[in-house]
Amino acid sequence: MKLNYKRAAIVVKPHQDVVAYLERTIAVLKSFSVEIVLEQIAAQLIGQESRISREEVAAYADIIILIGGDGTFLSVARQAVDNQIPVAGFNLGTLGFLTELNKENLDENLHDIFYGTPTISERKLLRLEYKDRHYKALNDIVAAKGNISRIVKLLLEIDGRYVSELGADGLIIASPTGSTAYSLSSGGPIVSPYVNGMIVTPICPHSLTFRPLVIPDSSRIKVTLISEARSFITVDGQRVLPMSCGDFYEVIIAKQTLKLVASGDMNYFKLLNEKLNWGL
Question: Is 62 a catalytic residue?
Fold first, then answer.
């Protein structure tokens, strides 16, 4: 049988159970004659050496096998997009919307990925444009206050049109994939990752009438800080950028997508049911 991928990078989150799953993954991939690339953390856990950091690992492989949680997934998402390789995430915890592959079926899932017809879910990303630089986010871009009790005031514009001057703890712009992350905990809607939209969710708004918005993903969102309160922009919880009064940023949908290896026996509504404990 022909291999779908010849070089696999392995990225892990340090966890009490991860070594067993890491060693099992390596053994299975070796039985497939797949070339294995370990990032530094994974190598250290099994007493090996590697000079390849998490930020570099995607350049050395044609697929990333991730054992951890959604935070670990987000830490490699940008590199995977830049190199246009898929990510297969095995969830070690309980609440994982990105790492949806079942670790208990590790052997079977790996066989399907490397020898079968894996299900690839194309996920749209957000593009942040700020001070002549740009950044990608799979889940969300958040403007929020620093460690002070005062609210921040933000001017929100969409497609060049005034929307509101918002007083709040912050503002979340989320992709459909990120609708089940910070946006959901702030009162935002659950949006299928296959919907072509963006979600704008205020964090504890001063005005209770300002509700979350779902807008077309052809839109351009502009957010300007209009208060003196020190604030920050957070990109997928991975990168923090300081923001001063008068600074603004814009958000659009990125041209490139993330290739996420989805579970063949899982659909989005089943995932919601399991992760959010819906039902009686």
Answer: no
